[in-house]
Amino acid sequence: MKIAIPVKTSNDDPAVSPLFGKAKFFAFVDGDKISIEKNEEQSGSAIVGKFIDKGIEAVIVQHLGYSPFEMLQEAKIDVFYAGEGRVLLSEVLERFKKGELRSVNESNIENLVKHRNEKNRKHHS
Q1: Which of 30, 36, 38, 66 is the most core-located residue (most Cβ within 10 A)?
Q2: For residue 36, is pLDDT > 80?
Q3: Which of 3.40.50.2300, 3.40.190.10, 3.30.420.130, 1.10.10.10 is the CATH number of 2-124?
Q4: From CA 81, how far away is CA 114, in angstroms rounded?
């Protein structure tokens, strides 16, 4: 399965980026092969277009806007939630292989990824 994951750096085992559309790099995983590429796109929507061209079948994210989420759904690209906090690429891939990551869909996107900033404001009030 071809997977894309936003990451913070191009190091060997980078942390998953909490950003999607503004992620500096993306890790592309195809079986045991991992490549990390600089993100040249400026929006989540443009990134989804690139994923479609690359034949990506799943993305693993910490946060994702609703518009790119809808585009991923329309393109039949599965979305998985990496979890909060610092998560390394190797950790999230291991959890993915074990089937431990939650699938993101219409019924749970509100709770998982869509409104991170609103949740943070509530916690700090």
Answers
A1: 36
A2: yes
A3: 3.30.420.130
A4: 11
